[in-house]
Structures are given as C-alpha cells and as structure tokens.
From TrEMBL:
<keyword id="KW-0675">Receptor</keyword>
<keyword id="KW-0342">GTP-binding</keyword>
<dbReference type="InterPro" id="IPR004390">
    <property type="entry name" value="SR_rcpt_FtsY"/>
</dbReference>
<keyword id="KW-1003">Cell membrane</keyword>
<feature type="transmembrane region" description="Helical">
    <location>
        <begin position="6"/>
        <end position="25"/>
    </location>
</feature>
<keyword id="KW-0963">Cytoplasm</keyword>
<keyword id="KW-1133">Transmembrane helix</keyword>
<keyword id="KW-0547">Nucleotide-binding</keyword>
<dbReference type="Pfam" id="PF00448">
    <property type="entry name" value="SRP54"/>
</dbReference>
<feature type="binding site">
    <location>
        <begin position="357"/>
        <end position="360"/>
    </location>
    <ligand>
        <name>GTP</name>
    </ligand>
</feature>
<keyword id="KW-0812">Transmembrane</keyword>
<dbReference type="InterPro" id="IPR003593">
    <property type="entry name" value="AAA+_ATPase"/>
</dbReference>
<dbReference type="InterPro" id="IPR013822">
    <property type="entry name" value="Signal_recog_particl_SRP54_hlx"/>
</dbReference>
<comment type="subunit">
    <text>Part of the signal recognition particle protein translocation system, which is composed of SRP and FtsY.</text>
</comment>
<feature type="binding site">
    <location>
        <begin position="213"/>
        <end position="220"/>
    </location>
    <ligand>
        <name>GTP</name>
    </ligand>
</feature>
<feature type="binding site">
    <location>
        <begin position="295"/>
        <end position="299"/>
    </location>
    <ligand>
        <name>GTP</name>
    </ligand>
</feature>
<dbReference type="InterPro" id="IPR042101">
    <property type="entry name" value="SRP54_N_sf"/>
</dbReference>
Length: 406
C-alpha cells in the first residue's frame, strides 16, 4: 500500500512539472522578436539623358513587323480624322490689253523721232542756207549725209539733184529750201513702194509671216509688238516660238501673246525650230486664225549653222503654204554693220520687208535709205521706243517731216 502511494505521488509530480514547463515555453513564444537589422537598399541608377538623335527610352529587343504585316485602317474608317485639302482659288485670267490703233502711229510718235533725227535735217538746211554754196559747202553736205548712214551712192545722187535745183531756183528762202529738201528726201526714201505687211492671202488662211534677224536687234520683242499691231487691226494671231536656242525666248514671246489673247506654240528648249514652226502653222490652220507669226533663232549671222537652220524652217513651213512675208529686223543704231547682216540673211531667205528698231535715241535716219537700196525691199515697220505700242507702220511723209523739222 505504501509502495503504491509513493508511485502515485511520483507520477503526479511528473505531470505537474510537465504542465509547468509547457506554460513557460508558451509564454516565451508570445513575446515579439526584435526586428532584424535593415538591409542595404538597392539603388537604381537614373536613365541617362538621351543625346541628339537617340531615343528617349532605352531600346528593348522586340519582334518587329514589316509594313506588309501592319493592319492599316481602311478608307471607310471614321476613327482617324482626315484633313481636307485646302481649297485653291482659281487663277485670275488677266484682262486683255487693247492695243492702240495703228493708223497714224508714226504721226503720233513724230516728236520722239524728230528729237533724234533733227541733226540731219537741220544740218542740211543750215548748209543750204549759206549765202555762197561753194565746193567746200557741198562737201560738208555730203559728209552730213554720209554721217547719217544714207550711203555713198544715194548721197551722191541727192547732192547732184540739190545742186541743180538750187542753181535753177536762184533765190533760197527758208521755206523754199525746206520744200526742196523735203521733195528730194521723199524721192530718196520712196513713196511709190507698197509697204503693207502681207498677212491676208486671197486663197487661204492663215497668212504666214516669218521674222528673222540677229539676237540683240529686238527680234522677239518686235514679233510680240507686231502681234499687237495685227490685233489692233482686228486680226487673230498665233505665235510660233521657233527661237529654241535662246533661253527664255519662248517665255518672252508667250508673255507678249497673252497680253493680247494670242496663242503661242512652243517646243522644248534647244529643240528643233522647224518642228515648232510647222506645228504653229498647223495649229493656226486648225484654229482658223488670220495670221501666224514665227519668231526664229538669231545667233551670230556669221555662223553657217544658223543660216542652214533658217533655210530649213522656211522649207518646212512651206509644206503647209508659201510664206507671205519674211521680215528682217535690223537695229538702226548699228549703221553699216546692219547692212552686212542684211546681205547674209537675204542670201538664205527671200527678205520681203525690213523692220528698223531703235530708230529713236542715237539712230541715224539715213539707214532707211541705205538698207532699202542694199536689199531692194522696203522698210515696212519702225520701232520708236520701248513701249508696247511703239512699233509703227513706216510712212515716208511723216518720217521725212520728222527729219527736217517744222
């Protein structure tokens, strides 16, 4: 019995110790653990500033698609706004100019002509008014005429006639001398010659006019001004820009045409002039115009190539119809050098009329007489300034009156 009691006491003691040990361990677990020491933070370097031409973001390796793999929005999609193209206002058509009537143009321009030509007329009147007309005086008269580019043969003829008339006349009042000089100069210039620019053939339309001459004489400008003359007279005109060798010649001619409503036919720069001339006549016939004006190249007249080209233009144009006029443009200020040019051109194409430009200023009126004698064809038009309507039909009476003054 005693033994059993001891064993029981020992068991109870063991159980009590176990329970107490569990309580102590449990209480220790409930106490919070101290926080661990902080770890060193991860520092990320800031992105470098992009340089010029670099992307603002670090490039990443990504699969790239070609343009064929990208789905583009179809035309009917309304998700993206499409800007309407700006409305361009229509170009304003320039108002056509109305050229001055050609009748009496030279009379209206007489003052301008007389300012530059009075040296000839007044010089002759002064010499003829001397009390004694000896041989020295007649030599001075000859020199005055030669200086005015009248030419040797016409000068000798005029002096001989004046000497005879003065000897027979006896008295020489200023009025008589002026009438005498006017009469003899008119004979020299010629009043019976037909100076009409032929643009109206009887059997067909259009009339065909070819304009030739050396560059620098005002050839292209004269062609444009002649178009104004024809329009002023009620004609319709097509311009052929066959001077394809000079830069901007076609543009210049087209500008002249647009101002009066004349159509211009042109070709490529440095193209075939004969082809342009042919097309101009063809279009003129199709359009039913009255006149076709053809501006030709005018490089140095001493170049054989140019002369051959002019001959070719003439032959090609005449496949349509014969030329009605071939007008040679001469610079009146070049004097005898202009006669050299005239001879060369006359050998290649049959010149039918002369246009004298720059007859104002320092020009010498005697060139009218000299060039007519040289070529046997009349001066038909004269240019008396830079104005658009300063090209006038040549009128011998108005010209001589301007030479000798009032």
């Amino acid at each position: 019995m005693v033994m059993e009691t001891v064993i029981l006491a020992v068991v109870i003691a063991v159980v009590v110790l176990a329970v107490l040990g569990g309580l102590v361990v449990g209480s220790r677990r409930k106490k919070p653990l101290p926080p661990p020491p902080p770890a060193a933070p991860d520092i990320t370097a800031p992105p470098a500033e992009p340089h010029v031409g670099d992307e603002a973001e670090t490039p990443r390796d990504e699969p790239r698609r070609t343009i064929e793999e990208v789905d583009l929005p179809d035309g009917g999609s309304t998700g993206t706004a499409v800007e309407e193209p700006p409305v361009v206002p229509p170009l304003e058509v320039p108002e056509l100019e109305v050229p001055e009537p050609t009748e009496g143009r030279l009379v209206r321009l007489r003052a301008r002509l007389s300012r530059s030509q009075n040296a000839l007329g007044k010089g002759l009147l002064t010499l003829l008014s001397r009390e004694h007309l000896d041989d020295d005086t007649w030599e001075e008269i000859e020199d005055t005429l030669l200086t005015a580019d009248v030419g040797v043969a016409p000068t000798q003829e005029l002096v001989e006639r004046l000497r005879e008339r003065v000897r027979v006349l006896g008295t020489r009042t200023p009025e008589e001398l002026r009438a005498l000089l006017r009469e003899e100069l008119l004979k020299l210039v010629g009043t019976e010659v037909d100076r009409t620019v032929k643009t109206e053939p009887d059997d067909r339309k259009p009339g065909i006019v070819m304009v030739v001459g050396v560059n620098g004489t005002g050839k292209t400008t004269t062609t444009g001004k002649l178009a104004r003359v024809l329009v002023a007279d009620g004609r319709t005109v097509v311009l052929g820009a066959a001077d394809t060798f000079r830069a901007a010649a076609a543009d210049q001619l087209q500008t002249w045409g647009e101002r009066v409503g004349a159509h211009t036919v042109r070709g490529p720069e440095a193209g075939d002039p004969a082809s342009v001339a042919f097309d101009a006549v063809k279009e003129g016939k199709e359009m039913g115009v009255d006149v076709v004006l053809i501006d030709t190249a005018g490089r140095l007249h001493t170049k054989t190539g140019l002369m051959d080209e002019l001959g070719k233009v003439k032959r090609v144009v005449e496949k349509h119809a014969p030329l009605d006029e071939v007008l040679l443009v001469l610079d009146a200020t070049t004097g005898q050098n202009g006669l050299v040019q005239a001879r060369v051109f006359a050998e290649v194409v049959d010149i039918t009329g002369i246009v004298l430009t720059k007859l104002d200023g320092t020009a010498k009126g005697g060139i009218v007489v000299a060039v007519q004698r040289e070529l046997g064809v009349p001066v038909k038009l004269v240019g008396l300034g830079e104005g658009a309507d300063d090209l006038a039909p040549f009128e011998p009476e108005a010209f001589v009156d301007a030479l000798i003054g009032d």
